[in-house]
Known about the structure:
alpha/beta
Amino acid sequence: MKKIVGVLRPFDRRQNFYVYEDGNRIDKISVTLEEMNESLFALAQKHDIMRIDLSGPKQYARGLAKKLQEDEIIKYNRAFLEINII
């Protein structure tokens, strides 16, 4: 199963997101917060991924997950990504 894992660091300019398949890292992106949502949508589409796991400060991760879900509904008129806070 493929998934995107984001290790969030609130005070870093760029956030790192990794694509894992069966425990092996197969791709990585480093993005700013302004380009995060579009980059994650493109990465999920490229690798046919439906799950994103966010790790880091819980409140910060919840805020980013909420914004990601809102943008997804606005862009695609549906929610197809499963976003987990770990």
